[in-house]
Amino acid sequence: MQDGGGIGVRCSGVVHLYRTFEGHDVVALQGVDLEIAPGERVAFLGPSGSGKSTLLALLGGIQRPSAGRILLGDDDISRMSERHLSRLRARRVATMLQGSTRNLLPYTTARRNVEFARIGMTAEEADRAPGVTDLLDRVGLTDQADQVVSTMSGGQRQRLALACAVATTPGLLLADEPTSQLSHVDRDAVVGLLHDLNRDFGTTVVVVTHQPEVAATFPRTVTMKGGRVGSEGHHGAEYAVIGSEGVLHLPSHLTTQWPAGTLVRVDAEPRRIVISHPADETGIPRDGLR
Ligand code: ADP
Ligand code: MG
């Protein structure tokens, strides 16, 4: 994988199961197909339990998929050795897990945490990347530089976690609800930092968020539903996605208007799929269903 610039992502047929203590399997992802271009900015939306955190952890190489393939650039991380994977995580792919504490060393200072995040970089990379003081300043933690993490507020920890994640100017930044505990001012600063990283270093940015104001700043949204990609949005327009075995997942707000059992007409020429509202009697001509 080349250094510098954004890393593209390709998932095909990604399935993930968790084994519970009782010994049964929970299907968190059931066949995710997804492509993210290098340098793209994507927000993942979707209800709790729809698999957003699982997908992000798989993309970051923190968990391995039960089945399917995940490519980061040209590297197949579903088959990569643990050593190769940890080198990738240290330098090119940064993951900010959900919750502010899991990403930090709690018993040392903010400054030491950022320094630690930079350890994996070569001297040349460290030269190009923003310095520790600059990073702390960008997330508004200049005054907390020498404060021990365990004494910082939730919002401060979340901002520090982001400073650590961007410290190596990764090619791919994955952030799971990075603004969930922040005030509006802090939230806007953090979101701004994510977009700056993309603009300045070409970093591909993927965030999970439940905040519409945050999602609206991203050119592309992907809505997860029941362990699958449910729908896509690009600059305000919304698209449904055809999943494996030809299953079409409508955006959830449309499923009440177009309930299960609604007929879908497939035209061969011109190639198109037409979904007509059930109440609209003239919508589907009878001969269209032959
Ligand atoms: P989201 O981030 O969208 O809320 P998650 O990826 O956290 O969704 O969870 C997807 C599904 O997997 C849920 O049903 C959740 O209960 C289950 N799950 C997540 N983590 C575990 C785990 N460690 N053990 C068992 N089940 C899990
Ligand atoms: Mg989650």
From TrEMBL:
Query: Which one of the record's GO molecular function terms can you name?
Result: ATP binding
Q: Which UniProt keywords apply?
A: ATP-binding, Nucleotide-binding, Transport
Record domain ABC transporter: where: 9-251
InterPro entries in UniProt: AAA+_ATPase (IPR003593), ABC_transporter-like_ATP-bd (IPR003439), ABC_transporter-like_CS (IPR017871), ABC_transpr_LolD-like (IPR015854), MacB-like_ATP-bd (IPR017911), P-loop_NTPase (IPR027417)
Which PANTHER family did the record assign? IMPORT ATP-BINDING PROTEIN
Q: Protein name, please? A: ABC transporter ATP-binding protein
Q: Which organism is it from?
A: Nocardioides cavernae
